């Protein structure tokens, strides 16, 4: 057994699990770990704010299915990273937040920046614990990986006492975790396929964690074989080529009313992977029918605790969505498929109408912008966004063709898009990465433009500026008309700001000027920002403030 410091054992454990990139903000509480990284083949992406670092790690976890790793210092570093932990929890993303802690001998004295992580992160992490014995670092890091990846994936917070990291101890060599298998039996897969074949109006709803390219392909293969329309759960649009004739849209915020009607009319819904949370189920009312849901819902999710949590399924299966989809596709059959052709066609026709650009009152039409971007780079680009009405245009009018190509927080966290874009570009440097941001949303993470420039993450940030916290202003005008309070914004010159960081900057105030700026941003060979001034009156697709 090698004699090494706790910090060296820690970095060995990360390397054994294939970590190639860590996101963080340096702190004196984990200097020993930073020193151990000097000799490791792992990049440390120094960020400008802990929230940005945590969001990058969360995005990394979404992209790869392996826990994204974030290092922050104790106390303020941990609390500022909490937003990324919460996003990872609500989005079921594997993530490990490594946090410095006071010396073991000082614990419990409320020393400088001391924080009880188990209490601080209760309810927003799968688990939070400290490694108090350097000889147990390999064991405890395997525990962290198992918690983050097994069952419903999620974030794990690991506290690292400062002196534990410097202790020299014997410990077994770190080993990679082999995730537990969550698979569906052939008999059950055949039974589910038979139920789909017997249905007149079935729907396959896909979402959640646990997918890869092969299982994504299986979605399409199953849909084609069974003549079954496919819906994506909230923020799962890239799980199927949106141009495919069997894709019928996304169940989420501001969903197509025709899609909601189709879900209510369906006689069998196979929910493959999503939690069936508030947004996907229209505030939990999707299955609130007189006859209940027992005879029309099959729910497959990796965490058994989610099955029956809100909706009682006819069949509940604790299995990884990807492996279950492969099993169902292997048993797919034509059977009574021909009777469902009209059903599939009607669902797709409704989606085509919904995703057709709409008119606006101002000079900038985001629906036309995102339709044009999809036409230009949809087969290869990765799109990211934070939270706000600005994102509604993206999700409705941009067609995802590639995989993976969507990074969006189901937690509704502002400030996510920019850091997520940086993580995506570092992971996929050959693909265009575009961040869609609102003015209020972008300013929450703007320091990470420096991170993008420093690390050569040549992303494109599209900032839609309407001078307001638009979503809140919309609700304000609905519930308290004519009484504007707390929602107006005075913004900087975003083009000049981008250029001050060393990025390329562009300004657009007409729809027809966007694509020339976008082409220039693609060719800039450095991070780029397009500042798009938009009318506040056009508060959402097909909606105005006066409406």
Shape label: globular
Counting DSSP E segments of at least 2 residues, the number of strands comes to: 20
CATH architecture of the largest domain: 3-Layer(aba) Sandwich
How many domains, as an integer?
Answer: 3
Provide an overview of this structure.
This protein is an alpha/beta fold. It has 20 helices and 20 strands. It is 36% helix and 17% strand. Strand 2, helix 2 and strand 3 form a beta-alpha-beta unit. The longest helix has 15 residues. The protein starts with a strand and ends in a 14-residue tail after the last strand.
Short descriptors:
547 residues; alpha/beta; Rossmann fold; 36% helix; globular
List the helices and strands and how they pair.
Elements: E1 3-5, H1 6-16, E2 21-24, H2 31-37, E3 43-46, H3 50-64, E4 68-72, H4 76-80, H5 82-90, E5 95-101, H6 117-120, E6 127-130, H7 137-149, E7 155-161, E8 168-170, H8 186-198, E9 202-206, H9 213-226, E10 230-232, E11 247-250, H10 257-265, E12 268-272, E13 297-301, E14 315-318, H11 321-331, H12 341-354, H13 366-377, E15 382-385, H14 390-397, E16 406-407, H15 417-427, E17 433-438, H16 439-443, H17 448-454, E18 460-465, H18 470-479, H19 494-501, E19 504-508, H20 514-522, E20 528-533
Parallel strand pairs: 2-3, 2-4, 4-5, 5-7, 6-7, 9-10, 9-12, 10-11, 12-13, 13-14, 15-16, 15-17, 17-18, 18-20, 19-20
Antiparallel strand pairs: 1-8
